[in-house]
Amino acid sequence: MARYGLRLLYGVIVVWGAFTGAFFLLYVVPGDAAGGLTAGADGADVKQLLAEQRELLGLDRPVWVQYWDALTGALQGDFGESIYQRRPAVEVYFESFPETLKLAFLGLLLAVVLGVTLSVVIELTNWKWARELLISLPPVAVSLPPFLVGLVLLQVFAFQLHWIKAVNDPSFGGLLIASAALAVAGGGSISQLLTANLRGALTSPYVETARNWGLSRFDVVVRHALKNAALPVITSLGTTVGVMVGGTVLTETVFSRLGVGRLVVDAVDGRDMPVVLVAVTISAVIFVAVNLVVDAVHPLLDKRIQWDG
Amino acid sequence: MQPLPLAPEPIERKQQVVFSYRPRHWLTAVGATLALLATAACSGSGGGGQSEAAADVAKKDRYGGTLNIGLSADPGGVDAAVVNQVWRTVARALADSLVFYNPKTKKVEPWLATSWTVSKDARTYSFELRDDVTFHDGTKLTAKVVKANLESLNRPGIHSSAKTIVQGISKITTPSEHKVTVQFAEPNAAFLTSLSRAYVGIVSQKTAELPVEKRQKWLDGSGPFYLEEYTPNQRIVLKKRKDYDWAPKYFEHSGSAYLDEVVYKIIPEDSVRNGAVIGDDELQFIYWVNAKYVSQLEGSGMTISKTLNPATGLELPLNTSSKILKDVRVRQALQIGVDREQFVKIASGGVDQPATGPLSKDNPFYSDQSELLKYDAKKARSLLEQAGWTKVGSDGIRRNADGERLSLRAPRDDAPLQVLQDQWKKLGIELVLDPPLAAEANEALLSGKYDVAYWYASSPDPDVLRANYGTTDGSDRSFVADDDKTGKELDKLLQEQNQTIDKDKRQKLVDHAARILVEQAYEVPVSNDVDIWAHSPRLHDITPVGLDQYLINAWLAKK
To answer: Which CATH architecture best describes the domain A89-301?
Structure first.
């Protein structure tokens, strides 16, 4: 248990580091929220508008004071108001968060289903040419950007088949197709890793034994080899979740969905510090939590893995 | 076509992004391709016959329906008084102005004010108000409300340029319930036209008193529609006011608007917006269409409207204090080194118009300076030689006796600036395209680090020239040096035109100033914007009026 305590401490340090890093990164890049707020002002008073906004937003205070305020506020759960939407940044964030969570979770699920199915089919395919063709799919899928997949899916399902609305379809169908756009690249990378591991597993002695028992090819691949080959894939899911959340920016844009991805990109562009800090802090917490869970799951899948102490 | 000031990305094309982000370029390219596919799939629908038949639809049969409009980004608020550039979209429908700018006669006409007087010295404006106007919250329009409106624009926290309109007001009095008098410390001839803008849309007393952070999200206005819902980054819903009956005469419309409801949907991706207006009737109207999509939209039966924008368009202030451009000969070489005919062909597919002076042809004080803007590469080269830029290096860029390169910096990197870069390169001038990030743009432009600048300022009044280039009162966008005598003369003319009510006298002053601006190259006018709007053939009477969009007359044919 002490082991978990230590890991938790590391987790806290990671979250604090992410918060602090985001604050200072956003601080040092040129431009600030006053610049963003006054963008588009076309009068002779731009200089005064800038100075006035800086004072009102407290951006004219020393950076350490601003940082201390942000940090102590955050510790009490108060990240301040979004500069553009003029309401608590936490509220703005958690309005979008469930949308992104749905999208990313369904995307991940689809990616796993796609990736695992493809890898198993590859192993079960007898014809050499078909097998080669299937093996070439994952690298292609990995290199397809989600927005391109998204536009193609919209073209087919919205503009041609009219199954979903092109603009922010709230139905499950709309969500499914948006997450499919996200799942293609993730599925590709899962399949790449899994195929390689299955290859390795299928040449191991225990699989030889299973074959000698007279088990069918399907049973050998799915019941025996897959379980062992899956371990590194599960480890990699920790990072796949991150990639997924990153990919939601483009998917949300293409499908005009409310979401954390779009929110954060806009917030960074406009130097909306409170929103950026909420987003970074929550993302860091999720990353830490997911990786803690992945670590905890390992011993369940492979009894040989045990935490010391 | 779409130069717009930047705002926190992603905003309306025009509304927003001048400084485009490079990664979006390939995104757009892919989008365009797919959108073409979409057109192919959907063409054949729609048709001109339908719209001809529509003209016969009796007025009483035009009522009803929901108009869906696609926006590329959240406008950041609904009240033009406090948020930059919302007037281009939502705000106009929510709050009416005291006066109406008639784009045909180019004159200011009655709206919420029935009549007015302007003193000879352009310092005192007196308005007589309609007595039948109400706000959405049920309260009545009175002189006191107008006073509260004008005063509300001049307080801290407002981050739009609306306050420049009321700057210099020394006193507002309300002699009777429906009479209001505004006095300026200094003459202000531009005030009346400024009042016609959505910036000064009149809102209820309660709204006028709201703090900025509340007012940007909510308002009770005097317009034909009221705000029903505003969900940032998703949608803005307006509903019609049944008791509205004070549209400007120009529209020949009595009573409430035809449309029941207007929904603005935020759709960041160009091709999806185009697809949604073509495809399933999800949208019936989109703004500021890039010229490259026009043939596709037309091919699928959409109605395209092209309107000359009264704003100046692509107009580049030159930094006359910069090391290279303080020499007027180099500036003049830039001026006549632009092939404006070729520019509009390449940069906008021939949609925009070549600039013929510092003001658009749609400005009531338009001043034709086309003689001074003729393309003359030979003369431009000889001016550069005279200025000492004689040697041409192996990179094709000129150098002076000290071996310095003739290299200039500009704050945009997009198709139009790339065309200019090409044209000037032929003369041996390097134009480095170095766009600032949106959030630092104002600061960077004010710092003077650019030789060639870009701002978006628009107004159907010649005073926009003073606002941009005035030094004693104005933005001094060409960084006039203290010892620049021509600059002083220019400023005097610019200030004087805003103190002159007599139309002919004012025109002479504007002509003179325009001539100096162009001849001495304080700025390079390149092209005038033509706004392209696309809409479903079901939608009628939504042509733009000047800078603003009015929805009072718009109606949808039944499906």
So the answer is: Orthogonal Bundle (1.10)
